[in-house]
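Budget justification aside, the reviewers requested a transparent look at the raw inputs and outputs of the sequence design task funded under Objective 1. We therefore reproduce one unedited record. The lines immediately below are the structure tokens for a 267-residue chain.
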């Protein structure tokens, strides 16, 4: 029994260390318009997670500067964080944006450089942003994405995602972000047939203009797709941050999307 207990503790400690909590948030127009008070609120929302990906970072200098300011605030809250911000995406000027990855350095290690996918820049306005992370000597790659709006038919972009697993056959891909399209759409069927499962089903992630009773969420747009043969889904959820504000109008100054999160371990 004395020998079994240390082995159990070692196993439990390794399992805990190999678990990772990833959060994705479309932070509407994330740039210099965000006040220090808003950045502090955002940091308080994010601090309990290990790797963060942000969509809709403003393409100009103000976007990258806002990410740096957010990380500076996070670094004052007890953990050391690092980050990468993408170059502006290649779509037309009004659609150009940046993406960001932010992570706790004691939980994850960035392997190599993060990169914007260049093969489908003609077909995808805001091409996805990739970053590979190592956790407990195992590696996975987050692919963060912000699709064109629903009125412009985001499925015309998402259909190219079925080619990405064969483009990167040696990477353990996790697709994460704002698809402006529900996971039930047939455009996701090719990924599902390859073994990529959606973390969320029938989970709305955007804010209405006004709540109807307790119903404040509008559309099922944000999601995460992971390969169920290589990752174990431990937990997931949304953060209804808007409940901390007196009105949706005030909450929407932070964002019109709620954060989504996914806790998993690598098999």
């Amino acid at each position: 029994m004395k020998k079994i207990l240390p082995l159990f503790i070692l196993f439990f400690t390794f399992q805990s260390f190999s678990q990772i909590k990833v959060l994705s948030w479309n932070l509407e127009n994330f740039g210099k318009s965000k006040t220090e008070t808003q950045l502090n609120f955002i940091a308080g929302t994010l601090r309990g997670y290990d790797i963060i990906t942000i969509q809709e970072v403003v393409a100009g200098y103000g976007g990258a500067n806002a990410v740096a300011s957010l990380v500076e605030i996070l670094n004052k809250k007890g953990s050391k964080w690092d980050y990468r911000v993408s170059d502006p995406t290649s779509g037309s000027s009004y659609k150009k944006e940046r993406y960001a990855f932010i992570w706790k350095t004691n939980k994850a290690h960035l392997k190599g450089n993060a990169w914007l996918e260049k093969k489908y820049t003609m077909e995808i306005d805001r091409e996805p942003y990739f970053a590979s992370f190592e956790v407990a000597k195992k590696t996975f790659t987050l692919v963060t994405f912000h699709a064109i709006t629903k009125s412009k038919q985001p499925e015309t972009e998402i259909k190219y995602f079925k080619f990405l697993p064969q483009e990167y056959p040696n990477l353990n891909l996790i697709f994460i972000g704002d698809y402006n399209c529900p996971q039930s759409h047939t455009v996701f069927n090719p990924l599902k047939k390859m073994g990529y499962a959606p973390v969320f089903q029938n989970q709305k992630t955007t804010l209405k203009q006004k709540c109807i009773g307790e119903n404040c969420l509008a559309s099922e747009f944000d999601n995460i797709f992971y390969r169920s043969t290589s990752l174990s889904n431990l937990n997931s959820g949304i953060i209804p941050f808007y409940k901390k504000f007196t009105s949706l109008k005030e909450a929407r100054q932070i964002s019109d999307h709620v954060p989504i999160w996914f806790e998993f371990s690598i098999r």
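The two ends are 28 Å apart (CA to CA). Residues 32 and 62 are 5 Å apart (CA to CA). Computational costs for records of this kind are itemized in the attached budget.
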